[in-house]
Amino acid sequence: MKQPELGKIITNLRNEKGLTQEELVDKCNISVRTIQRIEAGEVTPRSFTIKTILAALDYNLENIKALFPDEEKRNWCVSKNQLLALNLAIIAGIIYFFIGFIEVYFDLDIEDFKTVKASTSIYISVKMISLVSMVFLYTGFVVSGTIFSNYLLRISSIVAIFTFGMGYVFDVFTWYNPLDTEEYFLVVLSIIFGCAYVLNGIGVLRLKSHVEKNLPTLTGIVLIVTGATFIVVFLFLIGVFLLIPLTILQIILLYKIKEELAKQ
Fold first, then answer.
1. 8 Å CB contact between 257 and 83
2. Is there a contact between 3 and 44 (Cβ–Cβ < 8 Å)?
3. Is 199:156 a contact under the CB 8 Å cutoff?
4. What is the pTM of this model?
5. Which of 16, 45, 105, 215 is the one with CA 20 to 30 A from 148?
6. How far is it, in rounded angstroms, from Cα 262 to Cα 78?
């Protein structure tokens, strides 16, 4: 089946339901632009996107799946590299969770007591392990955003990687070169981090049409609340402690996403 035919089927089903494109968007949490491009025949969506749209229209994908050639159906599948990225993200998330306790201890020790109980090599090693594991963890959400056509999740996860990366660079830089204006920069970073968490949380909320609804909702809410505490700045310590349940939820969510994709 050529893509324009799929677009026509979706358009006809939507019209039969008496729905506008905007109303369909509200039912399936897919962007208006994506719906427009699919109906216009400009893109060939993955099976997850098609399945979500058809489910919102009370129509089963299996009813039209046979109309597609095997080559097209293969294009719907998740690639091995994407599954590998998700597996690595889960493993990295576990590492990030445990290394985070050591990292926070060192950071709070430095900021509050100005005494460092770790050598430079240990401190830098902890920071590097945390940075690399964070990058892999959020890469899992970049991949998830790509698979599910969740552009906000993909973009916000990329922003989070670069934003949090700035924090690591700042930590290492101030280790070697303490700044008189360090507190000012920490306030700015806290606000930037908070914005990144909030955007990512909104993106995660949009996963509820693809994964068990309660999990993306809970994870998204915790991300947004964590972001809010960082934005307020004087509540950032609460945000630091919220990172514990947040990271656990992120790992579980990535695992559920991988399980869902494995069924396809």
1. no
2. yes
3. yes
4. 0.75
5. 16
6. 9
